Amino acid sequence: METFASSLGFRALWTPELLVTIVVIAILYGLLVRKTKTGTVKNMIFFMSGLLALYLGWGSPLYVFGHVMMTIHMLQMVFAYFIAVPLLLLGIPRQWYEAFLTSKWAFRPLRYFWNPIVALLLFNGLFSFYHVPLMFDTLMQAPFLHSLYQWVLLIAAALMWWYILSPVPSTYKLPELRRIFYIFANGLLITPACALIIFAPNAMYAVYTDPLIWANVMAYCLPGGAGPEALLAAFGSPEALQFLDARTDQQLAGVLMKVFQEIVYGIAIGYVFKQWLKKEKMQDGELTISDIPQSQG
Q: Were 79 and a residue from 57, 158, 168, 169 both cysteine, which residue would form a disulfide, CB within 3.0 to 4.6 Å?
């Protein structure tokens, strides 16, 4: 694996264009927070952590090694759609959401998708469809289509997480109990895709088993315009770089996704309970104050 990494260029390993974009977004975020005097330290920590998680999911050496082992690919998915997205949503100050949603710049067509059921089915459907072997192998061999699908999946994830986190209480949201059921529904709908990956009798993805397809996928990462023949001559097949056989790697990838998804959704349920308790305490406090007899002095 170390020899393989050394054969790749700096751009393939570190995705500098994504890194520069993320740094620019972080700087603009900081300047806007300072100018508008909105947001808290907690917002900034969430947002910066979300940008880091997105870089780990879409860039960094994990991206290129995700073409070698499916377990690493699934780790990318966890970082991008189950860690980065909720952190970024929590990192945006509430005032920014409210200003955008009431402005003329609000994306009006989005209202047709601004529905919890649509968001639930859209994200889990796109995620499951992505891991259908034919779809997966096709997208991996088409960098532009793969990037486009990633962006669509990111937007779908943001819609889904919006109804879990409810960052703007003034807008329509699910009551706390329904939000908890909503989280359970997300965990249920993603289970078939994980089960398919875990219990398939054979390795399903040609990207990790077919030397020619793997070499074609990896060719654009090589420096100097070297073709897939260079990879095949140097390494022969992806199995030569894998720590596990393809089927075991696939099973571990499915288990990893399911376990991490359960952990993240468990944290989300705790977050909703915390909001629920805070809301109940505020209501109890208001009731107590209103019940105190006013002095007639």
A: 57
